[in-house]
Amino acid sequence: MMVRKVEERLEEVRKRRETLEKELKGLPSGHVESKLVNGRTYYYLRYWEEGKLKSKYLGKDAKEHLAMLEKTNSMRREISVLREEEKRLEKVLERILDALGVEESK
Asked: pLDDT value at position 66?
């Protein structure tokens, strides 16, 4: 019974992590920088690509991009937490199966 619960939770965590990782591929990474030129503020997306720091002009209003980047960062934090939980659950499942003398099937 306990093994089944741990296996189910492990599967839930894996599915959630995989879903987030797929969704994350479509979202921007990097950070927003602003430049003040002649009293006007201009926003740029700064990110790393092929070992070089790149900039992309966003315009005079970056609220939408800031919200997307916050979502991206939030998803990355959740993925990190899910990976840690996944490792813990794998160890717990391994210990339970070892204690029961059962071979783990992957």
From this structure: 83
- Exposed, middle or buried by CB within 10 Å (0-12, 13-18, 19+), for 45? buried
Q: Cα–Cα distance between 88 and 74 in angstroms, integer?
A: 21
50 Cβ contact list (under 8 Å, min separation 6): none
Query: What average pLDDT does this structure show over 74-81?
Result: 95
Question: Looking at the predicted structure, is the pLDDT value of residue 105 above 70?
Answer: no
Residue 3 pLDDT level (bands cut at 50, 70, 90): confident
Measured between alpha carbons, how far is residue 103 from residues 3, 97, 106 in Å?
A: 13, 7, 10
Ranges of H-type helices in the chain: 2-25, 63-100
Listed residue (73, 93, 74) closest to 85, CA to CA: 93
Q: Dihedral of the CA atoms 19, 83, 77, 48 (nearest 10)? A: -80
